[in-house]
Amino acid sequence: MAEKANENIAVYTQMMFFDPLNKAPGAKFDEDGTRHLYYADTEPIVSDDGKGNVTLRYFAPNAKEVCVAGIGGSLSREKIPMKKDEDGYFRVTLRNVMPGFHFHEYFVDGQRAVNPLAPLGYGCFYPINFFENTDEDSGFWALRDVPHGDVRMEQYRSSVTGRMKACWVYTPPGYDTSGENYPVLYIQHGVGENETGWIWQGKLNLIADNLIAEGAALPCVVVMNAGYAFVGEEEYDFLPGRFFDELTGDCIPYIESKYRIKEGKKNRAVAGLSLGSSQAFMLAMANRNLFGSVGVFSGMLPIRRPEYDYTPYFADPTNIDRDFDLFFGAAGADEPFWPQMKELLESFQKGGAKNVVAYSCPGYHEWGVWRYHLREFLKLAFRKAEGGEA
Q1: Residue 229 near residue 180, CB atoms below 8 Å
Q2: What is the helix, strand, coil percentage profile of the chain, to 5?
Q3: Are 328 and 357 in contact (CB under 8 A)?
Q4: Which residues face 270 on adjacent strands?
Q5: Which terminus, N or C, of the chain has the lesser number of Cβ atoms within 10 Å?
Q6: Positive or negative CA dihedral for 317, 321, 324, 325?
Q7: What is the dihedral of CA 26, 32, 33, 35, to 10 degrees?
Q8: pLDDT score of 255 more than 80
Q9: Cα(123)–Cα(323) distance, rounded to whole angstroms?
Q10: pLDDT score, position 15
Q11: DSSP 388
Q12: Residue 86 Cα distances to 55, 59, 90, 229, 242, angstroms
């Protein structure tokens, strides 16, 4: 029997726990008093009826009031009261919830609290609960019985901060035994998150595994870095420190000396979401000899800032094709800046740039949208470099 989307383990996978959390230990006693432990099904922490109605629960038998709220976008910040039942659980059913990934917060007697029985991620600068509302298209990020790559943690020293830095590295299925070299994608998270986001929230490894198994994407190495490099007591506006120097001067040399990476800029891409999208764009533009593809997920394409002005460059969009095999811009259809971003990308296309791709899908500034962006980007990345062309 086919597995339902909302039953796949990827729906519940989180940084603290892999299996579903709806098993509770119990005990039975024989007539002689011998105790037998067992696990019994409990009410799901999150239940979805397939129609956008999602039930949440919070165990607080001594609390007077528990509320839940989203963080904006598809799930409002309005605090919604939960109803207390006799078993000590507070429950509420949210109606017409959009498919996708949803951060949300609980408030117990007015104080923000983490729900220990619900999936937990890291976002908005702190640990925060989430739930998944699946639909018929959610299978592209599900955990399937296909060959899987590895996710590895690497440490290298930052010459910018003098501290050790961690990055996570996805290697495609068969990397350890193939002896082959692979293209590499350096991908960034958004503000308030870190290198773990693209795995736990973004399901990057599962998306890549599934696309590679289908033959829809080329196998590649993906490097996920924390995009912060603060020095001393310096204050920073918009960009978090000197991360550009750290990535190009420390991370890339370290990764490409340790992993089997194909040579040439056509085999190196940079992408990111939100703040990371601006980082990706500015990295690519400042290092056009280093990166052959760029992905801007939910970003504004900051062509001009106080420290630079690329207006002359983009006045002739054919410059893009000269420098990039893929110039990919995307946003959720409900993000307020998408019409402006779309108009700009289309102006590049009308100006003769053939390697510019504009993509959108339903949704807001949320992980559910960025998974689609990643899927479409991976389908297109490194195609012109196939065969080893540098």
Answers
A1: no
A2: 25, 30, 45
A3: yes
A4: 186, 294
A5: N
A6: positive
A7: -40
A8: yes
A9: 34
A10: 75
A11: T
A12: 17, 11, 9, 50, 54
Q: Are 355 and 324 in contact (CB under 8 A)?
A: yes
Of 282, 284, 321, the residue nearest 185 (C-alpha): 284
pTM above 0.85, yes or no: yes
Q: Which two tokens stand for residue 304?
A: 């001009």
Q: pLDDT per residue over 111-149, tens digit each? A: 999 998 888 899 988 999 999 988 888 899 999 999 999
**Cβ-Cβ contacts under 8 Å for 102 (sequence gap 6 or more):** 70, 74, 75, 130, 131, 132, 133, 366, 368
What pLDDT does residue 389 have?
45
State both tokens at 343.
Answer: 């108009």
28-37, 62-71, 188-197: which range is least confident on average?
Answer: 28-37
The DSSP H or E segment spanning 112 is strand 111-113
What are the residues whose beta carbons fall under 8 Å from the beta carbon of 315, sequence distance 6 or more? none
Helix 204-214 vs helix 367-380: crossing angle, to nearest 10: 40
The pLDDT value given to residue 208: 98
* Residues 6+ positions from 231 with CB-CB distance below 8 Å: 160, 161, 241, 242
Q: Own/partner pairs for 314-321, CB < 8 Å, 24+ apart? A: 314/348, 316/351, 317/347, 317/348, 317/349, 317/351, 317/352, 317/353, 317/356, 318/351, 318/352, 318/353, 320/348, 320/353, 320/355, 320/356, 321/352, 321/353, 321/354, 321/355
Predicted confidence at residue 388, as pLDDT, reads 44
